[in-house]
Write a structure and sequence with these properties.
The chain is 36% helix and 22% strand. With 123 residues, the chain is α+β, with helices and mostly antiparallel strands. The chain has one domain: Alpha-Beta Complex (endopeptidase fold (from Nostoc punctiforme)). Helix 2 packs across helix 3. The termini are far apart. 24% of the residues are buried. The model has no long low-confidence stretch (mean pLDDT 79).
Length: 123
Amino acid sequence: MNFKHHYRPGDIVSVRFNGVMRHYGVVTYGGRILSNNGERGGVISQTLAEFANGRRVRHHPGNEASDYLAHARTQRKLGHDYHLTGSNCIHFVRHARGKRPTTTQYARAGLMALSDLLSSRRR
């Protein structure tokens, strides 16, 4: 983990999981990380250490003008449910920055859902 960075509210942080994928979260004014976590069922608040869970944290800084808005947008989502195709961690951080989900995100989620469907039929 790298605690040497000074994270500002509204900054996005991420950690690697399952080898090549990344999990994203947004830094809040209290120094906590809000993220949409599929394993925990939705948008949760964690300490940086809990979010990192022993993994290296990558920093994706925002711009100072959007810090307050990003923080406010994420706080409103606290407790909302997780959904792979419509409300995952990437959607969450894009929403925090005032952006819409991309077509690529929808396509990737659709392929993953189809893959899960096909693999469950083989069992």
